[in-house]
Amino acid sequence: YENVCTHSYTQAWWDWARWEREIDWMAMSGINLPLALTGQEAVIQRVFLRMGLTHAQIAPYFTGPAFLAWNRMINIKSWAGHLPQSWIDGQQQLQQRILERERSLGMTPVLPAFAGGVPEAMQISHPTAKFTRHGNWGGFSEVNCCVLMVAPKDALFKQIGKLFVEEVIQTYGTDHIYSCDTFNENRPTASAGEEGLDYLTESSEAVIKSMEAADHKAIWLMQGWLFMNDARFWQKAQLDAYLKGVPHERMILLDLFTDVFPVWKRKDLTRPTPIEKRRWVWNMLHSFGGNSGMYGRMHIISNDPIEAKKESHTMEGIGITTEGIEQNPAVYEMMAEMRWHHSPPSVALWLEEWAHRRLGAHASEARVKLAQAAWREIGETVYSCPTTQMGQVKSMIESRPRLDLYTGWIPNSDFMPIRRHYPETSLVNAWYKLIEATLPSGADGYAPPACAMFDLVDVTRQVLSDTFARLFVNIAGFVYVKSKQGVPLPTRDVRTVSQAEERMQLMLGMIEDVDQLVGTQPHMLLGKWIAMARSWGSNDDEKALMEFNARNLVTLWGPRGEIADYASKQWNGLIGDYYLPRWQLFFQKIGSTLRDNRPLNQETFLAELFQKENAWQTQTSPSFPALPLGDAMHLVHKLAQKYKEVITNSLKDDIYSQAIVSDVPVLHAPGADVLTDQLQGRS
After folding, report:
1. 558-562 contact pairs (CB < 8 A, 24+)
2. Beta partners for 297?
């Protein structure tokens, strides 16, 4: 259970109470192999102190708290740091409680091991040792990327790796399964030919031997993301060479993205594939960055794990390897339940039971039937993605404004496109049914439970986000009419500058309404995220550092917006204080270009926008509500009435069926294009 990234995108600021709740859910869901990576910085610090480095030399190696997932995977260093000692000590204490609880419930926690990354000062303290360096990751400058690595054949690798696992065992005990990622989104700096293949074998061999030096029962649980993400490099020869360095009984592979790209049976490799020859786990990844959009592949997750187990005798189990949780609960509950099924369950029947449970035992039969019809429709469309889309729908509201957003594609667009994979009328129809099923009428005395209101708010949020994107098409179409910038698109009732300005004001009002709506839900609050972050600071400076980390991760994700909006969320406060001002500035520029009959300079706009985005990072605003406010039932009813006609009219144009946007290139992960012909669920 979990992905290394989950510890940053969702769990960065969790306290013990929140961890305890999650661990109890894990136990009830039959999860027995959780990643337990919290608190490893205390281990890393002690190891490098034992290796002769000072605190000052170690400190630049660590990132800030929100970015430790990528520090642990040797992608970045230094950014948003340095780590306060209070954080390091507090996380160690938290990890000890996490492990005690997990073990008491019969789980086998997976602990960290040494993957090769070291502070820059190691070159000074060990001048005769051999080092390599990872390449650029995410477009970060060298000061924050290109982490120094101990060469796998150098004796220093085994020395540090042994110390690392010894410290882990001394601090946290062990269940003999360890996780580390040497080449996560970093292509090995290997030569061509046999020399390069030997290097791959030496790399994996160094990892397992350093584990075994401290724990003779050690097993390496390895994320197999690299074999999909960079499939162009990881061909049969490279896979064979890398996996050859680890005895079969010493490795379990996580096929991290099996719900979309099943690497265990890659079609470009001869069966049995190198992965299939190892013990491996079927996983649902589902969410990138913990985004808010509705999305799922229930038709895949309800069937394929069972079929894979029949087909592959080396499949050890199933898992959930999402980058972020607290969204799309139906998808996660079904996937967690699949460990109990020996034959594929009916998605429709499963969702009918789900609908009844969410409404509660006191819901009338009429309400239950309406909710069941709504969830069946969602299950057949939104939660059964048939396209090459890899992750959740990204709301246009939380995307950097651009005229070409009408295409539905943005950077990282194969992961999280704006373009919807479902018939939008289906979601709207389901929404109306869910409103009628959930909102109190007074006649039957029904009061919806919190989970039913979460569902209704979430679907309402998605419907309004989709409507915003459709309304934008008419604005982009009118800009083309006036300036020939972009492509011809339907303008519908936007035929004059004043009508365009009226439309833009309507859309800004919609953003404000969504912000207020999600503010009624405890899992949709920027204020809660920031308050949890600040709680880990022991003084004002540390609290400010924590808040900076919390803000940057969900917005710019880097000093220059290197991975901007990847981890965006439709949270109260984030919508109103960050996304809304971006759209206000953009519509201001659009209004000026329309009145002056001149094209929009997108690059100048983005440069101005970045200045505002960057200034937001260092603000400290404890005024964001950390607790839900408002009456969700009243707001949903109000918004359904307010936007009913707008929604209906916006559904009349389906630009995605037209050639003008059907051939827009999709930006794939490096090498993922090799595997697109085997995408799960493709129509």
Report:
1. 558/79, 558/138, 558/139, 558/140, 558/144, 559/79, 559/140, 559/141, 559/144, 560/139, 560/141, 560/610, 561/610, 561/613, 562/138, 562/139, 562/140
2. 384
* Cβ(288)–Cβ(416) below 8 Å: yes
Hunting for tokens 């609290």 — which residue is that? 543
Q: How far apart are CA 69 and CA 83, in angstroms?
A: 14
Contact call for residues 169 and 62 (beta carbons, < 8 A): no
Secondary structure (3-state) at 278: coil
- pLDDT > 90 in the chain, percent: 89
Burial readout 200-215 (b: 16 or more C-beta within 10 A, e: otherwise): bbbbbbbbbbbbbbbb
Nearest partner of 632 among 452, 431, 506, 509, judged by Cα: 452
pTM to 2 decimals? 0.96
pLDDT tens digits along 76-99:
999 998 899 999 999 999 999 999
pLDDT one-digit tens code per residue, 181-234: 999 999 998 778 899 999 999 999 999 999 999 999 999 999 999 999 999 999
DSSP 433: H
Gap between the Cα atoms of 419 and 408, Å rounded: 4
Nearest Cα neighbor of 273 from 240, 231, 318 is: 240
State the Cα–Cα distance between residues 544 and 533, nearest whole angstrom. Answer: 9
- Coil, helix or strand for 305? helix
Rounded to the nearest 5 percent, the helix, strand and coil shares of the chain are 50, 5, 40
